[in-house]
């Protein structure tokens, strides 16, 4: 315990804090680009898994099941060690973006799908009877209604995505976790290094956790659609 | 090709899988116990015990907002002792926070009338929990617990970073002997397939259970 309250060690940490900030920058950028991929791809896949064409449904199913039921670590190791054997070399940053992007696209796709399914069938029929084409039915009628249901699990996914960027520490990805691990290892100041990393992740994730809770409460007050259970679509 | 998937290599990977399964089950069982305790404290601690609820709440919120891998590294170095025991502790510490939230969600879904009925029959609080509330809660949260189990199994792959001989680390060692792209690819495929089969079975049971519950109301 004396190691935890050793002022000298904390002062060293403050002196070297720029390393942690570098890691923070990588984590934020990877999370941001990863989220863009996850949202874009997740939205497309989520809509495709609700269309009548069986082929699309099968493809999205395979994608979702594969990415959800294998470890992110294995996926990321495949991108960084497996792909070079096929002549594809991705820089660490890209491995992180593609890694969390595809992994969470699978989860977000499921969130979107359940959100669309939560909106009553009658809504689609009403829109079709009014002559709305499919894209417009989605754009103006289904998605706006399911948005309130979709949002809480979506912000929850964003939080998980930020946490999962820490997988980069396994492949020297220069993120918070990587710098914390190397700084703690080099100095032998494990408490200081890891607790600081924990605090940085907390600062990034806690606002998202609060937002999720608030949106969940809001969704509960909606009569029209049944809210999704967050925990069951968690990663 | 047939060399890399030799009997010895496959048995070596199977040993890793055994440890992966053991670590996951141990984590889930321990997290269920601690998670239940924390959820009860956070939900029902009143009056003098209110600070306890606040502390528990802080612990849950803090761990939910940090990555699991951080605690895997942290406990590897902080405390001396058997590395497997340390990592089960790290996993349990992290997973209990998430489990507590799942169980709290279940507790909040129990109708108030159940407590009133128990009180009118003269049940003490522990007995009310044990005989009436918890059985109903557990029944409700089975899908969420199974989902969490999938997460735990997947997260055990992180443990190769702290030299625990689980499935991914043992596969890594086998990969070290591989030369051709085909060998590497087949090992990756096998590794992914093993995790996939286990997790997919669990995720199908989650959905089947949900459908069954929905059908029966």
Write up what this structure looks like.
The complex is a heterodimer of chains A (235) and B (217). By secondary structure, chain A is mainly α. Chain A has one domain: MetI-like fold, CATH 1.10.3720. Chain A has nine helices and no strands. The mean pLDDT of chain A is 90. Chain B has one domain: MetI-like fold, CATH 1.10.3720.10. Chain B contains eight helices and no strands. With 217 residues, chain B is mainly α. At the A-B interface, helix 3, helix 4, helix 7, helix 8 and helix 9 of A face helix 2, helix 3, helix 4, helix 6 and helix 8 of B.
Please outline the helices and strands:
The complex is a heterodimer of chains A (235) and B (217).
Chain A (H helix, E strand, L loop, with lengths): L6 H9 L1 H32 L5 H15 L3 H11 L9 H27 L2 H9 L4 H31 L11 H12 L2 H31 L15
Helix pairs in contact in A: 2-5, 2-8, 3-5, 4-5, 5-7, 6-7, 7-9, 8-9
Chain B lengths: L6 H38 L5 H15 L3 H11 L4 H26 L3 H9 L4 H31 L11 H11 L3 H36 L1
Helix pairs in contact in B: 1-2, 1-4, 1-6, 1-7, 2-4, 3-4, 4-6, 5-6, 6-8, 7-8
Family (chain A): Belongs to the binding-protein-dependent transport system permease family. HisMQ subfamily.
Keywords (chain A): Amino-acid transport, Cell membrane, Membrane, Transmembrane, Transmembrane helix, Transport
Main location (chain A): membrane
């Amino acid at each position: 315990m004396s190691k935890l309250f050793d002022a000298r060690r904390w002062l060293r940490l403050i002196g070297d804090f720029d390393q942690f900030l570098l890691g923070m920058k990588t984590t934020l950028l990877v999370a941001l680009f990863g989220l863009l991929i996850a949202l874009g791809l997740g939205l497309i896949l989520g809509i495709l898994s609700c269309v009548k064409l069986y082929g699309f449904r099968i493809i999205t199913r395979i994608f979702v099941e594969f990415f959800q039921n294998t470890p992110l670590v294995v996926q990321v190791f495949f991108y960084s060690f497996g792909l070079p054997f096929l002549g594809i070399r991705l820089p660490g940053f890209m491995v992180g973006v593609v890694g969390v992007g595809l992994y969470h696209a699978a989860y977000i796709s499921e969130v979107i799908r359940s959100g669309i399914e939560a909106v009553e069938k009658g809504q689609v029929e009403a829109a079709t009877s009014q002559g709305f084409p499919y894209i417009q039915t989605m754009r103006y009628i289904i998605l706006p209604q399911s948005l309130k249901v979709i949002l809480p699990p979506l912000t929850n996914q964003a939080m998980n995505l930020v946490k999962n960027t820490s997988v980069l520490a396994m492949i020297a990805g220069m993120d918070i976790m990587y710098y914390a691990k190397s700084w703690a290892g080099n100095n032998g100041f494990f408490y200081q290094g890891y607790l600081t990393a924990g605090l940085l992740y907390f600062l990034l994730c806690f606002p998202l956790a609060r937002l999720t809770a608030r949106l969940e409460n809001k969704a509960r007050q909606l009569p029209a659609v049944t809210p999704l259970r967050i925990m069951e679509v968690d990663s | 090709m047939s060399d890399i998937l030799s009997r010895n290599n496959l048995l070596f990977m199977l040993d890793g899988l055994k440890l992966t399964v053991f670590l996951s089950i141990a984590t889930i069982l321990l997290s269920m116990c601690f998670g239940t305790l924390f959820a009860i404290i956070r939900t029902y601690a009143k009056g003098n015990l209110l600070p306890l609820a606040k502390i528990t709440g802080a612990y849950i919120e803090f761990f939910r907002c940090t990555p699991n891998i951080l605690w895997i590294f942290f406990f590897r170095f902080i405390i001396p002792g058997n590395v497997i025991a340390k990592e089960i502790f790290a996993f349990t510490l992290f997973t209990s926070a998430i489990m507590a939230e799942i169980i709290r969600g279940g507790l909040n879904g129990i109708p108030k009338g159940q407590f009133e009925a128990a009180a009118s029959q003269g049940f003490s609080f522990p007995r009310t929990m044990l005989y009436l509330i918890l059985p109903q809660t557990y029944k409700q949260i089975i899908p969420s617990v199974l989902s969490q189990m999938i997460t735990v199994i997947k997260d055990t792959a992180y443990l190769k970073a702290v030299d625990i001989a689980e499935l991914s680390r043992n596969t890594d060692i086998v990969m070290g002997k591989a030369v051709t792209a085909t060998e590497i690819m087949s090992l990756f495929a096998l590794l992914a397939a093993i995790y996939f089969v286990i997790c997919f079975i669990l995720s199908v049971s989650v959905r089947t259970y949900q459908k069954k519950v929905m059908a029966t109301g």
